[in-house]
Amino acid sequence: MWKTVKKLDGVILFVLLLLMIMSVLAVYSGTRFDPKLDSHHVKTIYFYIAGFIAVIGIGLINYKLYVKYALLLYGIGILFLILANVLGSKVNNANGWLKISESISFQPAELFKMILILFLAHLIVKRKRGELGFWRDVVPIGCWTFVPFALVMAQNDLGNALGYVVILVAVLWIGNIKLKHAIIGVTIIGAILIGFIKSYTFYHDEVFTFLEKIKREHWAERIDPWLVPEKATAKAMWHTKNAGLAIGSGGITGKGFLEGTSVQSGRVPYTYSDSIFVVIAEEFGFVGASLLILLYFILIHRMVLIALGCKDRAGPIIIVGIIGMLLYQVFENVGAFLGLMPLTGITLPFISYGGTSLLINMACIGLVMSIKLYGDEDEDELLPEQQGPTLMQRIRSLVTQGKGKSHDVS
To answer: For residues 225 and 244, what is the distance between their CA atoms, to the nearest angstrom?
Structure first.
């Protein structure tokens, strides 16, 4: 067993250790003046310890076993989402939390990210070789994704619901979707996005009135500072405006640990969770924020290398799904405070306080570790269906074809 553990990716483990240090420091800085939150940095350490155990434990089990039973996991995940809709408690306008006890609760929407990645990989590896058909493959896969999307939207959790869409797009891309279908999909998404922006800005008052009727006016409070800041209320602008000022005041090297005036004075809300990037940017400056982005880059780069070395189809699909999930969370969280994205309440991976989010992200890294350990097996005994060409096989085929054509010309 120890020999197997030694084969885990040491670079990824080291990056996670550095992210843990940054998380603990940032959570401590953002909560030390609130007596209700003053132990959150200690809890973060406990969550990370549990997370490293999850990385190793999940990594030692062949990931193909998870893929094989993905349908069962999907059913369990849907059941949890339904329970969250019926019995869930509300946290920051989202009612998707299930309480296990007075001090322990978890968010099924976070758990379902990993389940969705495994299930979509399961669906794609069951397909025959070649490109995905639109009606035969893409539409059914989209329908399977729409079910949890609708359930999470009903929980008033737009951020996690959009995360499912990103995972779907990433998995379809690596799953060999036809180029024309990809172009059509991008065109439709682009048209919808442009149409939404134009309609929202032109009919802002009517949209706001409608959102008030359905008790979703807080959506407008998050979108207004991004699209129409001149029409945003002072309450809506408070968060992003003060966050932007704090980030700008950090300068190159920051004001120093525990010296961030905006963070320590409480002018920026949720500095331990959604706004934790503001803590890093104000107190550690451009250097600290850049180091954080660099750590994400190294983590994703190592995951890409593991995917390229995998010999079956499921491994790269799972890894690309995880990469899409993480990139979406990082871009959405950081972009919201830079004016690039609306504020949706998405946590910053591996940094924001939150047991469910951290443990699920660490569990996903465990899947990556499992792919590194078992992805070099040519035959997939756990998945009875015939497997299509791997990512590396497709790359080698393209290179070989290119050489053959150049030889014919000469």
So the answer is: 12
Helical packing angle, 234-249 and 217-227, nearest 10° = 50
Encoded tokens for 35: 């007596």
- The partner residues of 97 in beta bridges, in order of sequence, read 89
Distance CA 350, CA 370 (A): 20
Alpha carbon distance 132, 177 (integer Å): 5
Q: Are 325 and 167 in contact (CB under 8 A)?
A: yes
CA-CA distance, 194 to 148, in Å (whole number)? 25
| Residue 303, both tokens | 């995951």
pLDDT digits (tens, 9 = 90+) for 353-398: 988 899 999 999 999 999 999 987 654 545 544 444 544 555 556 5
Beta bridge partners of 94: 91
pTM, two decimal places: 0.87
Q: What are the start-end ranges of the H helices in 88-233?
A: 108-125, 139-154, 158-174, 179-202, 204-213, 217-227
Distance of CA 137 to the CA centre of its chain: 24
d(CA 334, CA 351): 12
> Coil, strand, or helix at residue 326?
helix
Cβ atoms of residues 22 and 280 within 8 Å: yes
- Closest Cα partner for 312 from 399, 370, 398? 370
DSSP strands (E only) in 14-156: 89-91, 94-99, 105-106
Beta bridge partners of 177: 132
Q: How far apart are CA 153 and CA 160, in angstroms?
A: 8
